[in-house]
Amino acid sequence: MPTLTGALSTFRRTKELLPLTILIGLSILFQAANPAFLSPMNLSNFFAYFPELGMMALAMTFLLIAGEFDLSIGSFFAFCPVLMFTMHNKLGLPLVPAFLVTLVVCALLGLVNGLLVTKVGISSFLTTIGMMLIVRGASLVITNGFPQASWNTESILRPLLAGSVKVGEFEIFSSLPWFIVILATMLIVLKSTRYGNWIFAVGGNARAAKARGIDTDRLKIGLFIISALMASFAGTIDAFRISSVFPIAGQGYELEVIAMVVIGGTSLLGGSGTLVGTVIGVMLLRAMRNGIIVMGVPGMAYNIFVGAIILAMMAIHSIMEKRTRGE
């Protein structure tokens, strides 16, 4: 039992270790079932989608650590490219200014989320559900529910956001360097700045943080703006990569992203979290989606596996907490 307790204590101290262990185990299983799982083509496809969800998951990690969450990110994922290409195609605005205007609009909507949560006192659950419906509805109204094509559009944004280069048999998309830069920046902010300490303090005990002079409202408002911007940026990358704009893009991403963050070791109760764990959580769920398809399991079964992993992870975390407390 001391050995088991020690192992559980190690997993509890290093929250990234458990999802990493599961990721490695599943990768070995999928590769044994079908050698195509780790093929250059499959890995290229994996890392094409991974950064887009990863960007949203990083912003969600900040919010969850601060004790809040955002259910409108999937709608922002679709709304930003819809608005951008509408301004370009129907109003004749060049893509770069249209992109910048769209980011400002999405930032303002994120600001509205933050103000409603902090100043009006509406829970982030209800606030972001309302924003999710508004933004998704706007996307459908603007497009009449039909996708918009973007493949005839030439702009520096296309190679900058969705270009790709061949490195041997691998194809690396521009989104991966963007994700790495964003991850490095957010890691520095969270671990090495007062702002990062404030995020943990607010999530751990908002009243105590406020008593220590931290402007909790301003911090949370900023995090909601970051969340909206990150989802908008990811949606624009996706639109350029697939050369189409879908008003229903990103449906269900909000729950999937929260699942990735929680699986990575961030607490739903706030005050605790890890960006590295979030990256592993994103890789784990994307690898699972990819692996079950490679194994020939119907893609519609993906949610079953995700639900099972979430419940298993929560059960393991609960057991670890009780064991380390000696209960």
Topology order in helix (H) and strand (E) letters = HHHHHHEHEEHHHHEHHH
Shape descriptor reads globular
Q: Could you estimate the helical fraction of the residues in percent?
A: over 70%
In order across it, which strands form the biggest sheet?
A: 1-4
Number of domains: 1
- In the CATH scheme, the class would be Mainly Alpha
Compute the number of helices. Answer: 14
Structural class: mainly alpha
Uncertain residue ranges:
none
**CATH fold-level name:** ABC transporter involved in vitamin B12 uptake, BtuC
The chain-level mean pLDDT equals 87
Strand content: under 5%
Explain what the structure shows.
It is a single chain. This protein is mostly helical and 327 residues long. It has one domain: Orthogonal Bundle (ABC transporter involved in vitamin B12 uptake, BtuC), CATH 1.10.3470. It is 74% helix and 4% strand. The protein is built from 14 helices and 4 strands. The strands form 2 sheets. It has a two-stranded antiparallel sheet with strand order 1-4. It has a two-stranded antiparallel ribbon with strand order 2-3. A hairpin with a 2-residue loop joins strand 2 and strand 3. It is globular, with a radius of gyration of 20 Å. The two termini are 13 Å apart. The mean pLDDT is 87.
